Structures are given as structure tokens and as C-alpha cells.
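Worked Example 4.2. Consider the chain below.
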Amino acid sequence: MVIVASDTRYVAVNAKTAELAAEIGLKDCEKKKDGECRLYYADCSRPLRVR
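Applying the procedure from the previous section yields the following C-alpha cells:
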């Protein structure tokens, strides 16, 4: 998961890899034109089985 933030909003994105999620999040943020977009947080963890 990554969190991309601008001056007025943020978006959390999940994808197969952190790099892909960052790319998607930054593109989405830049479309909104809410100021400078930046990667705020990025981390991936191994899948966990849930019963």
C-alpha cells in the first residue's frame, strides 16, 4: 500500500507492488491538480491467510 498526498488531499492505493501502487497514486493525484503530489508512505507486506 502507498499513500500519496497533495496540499489538500490524499489517496491510498493497493497494487501488486509498491512501485505500481505509487505510479497509480501519483497519476491519480496529478489529475486532480491540488498542488504538488508526493509519495507519503510506501510499504508492502506478504499476503496473510484469513479464515
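The two ends are 22 Å apart (CA to CA). The chain has one domain: 2-42. Compare this with Example 4.1 before moving on.
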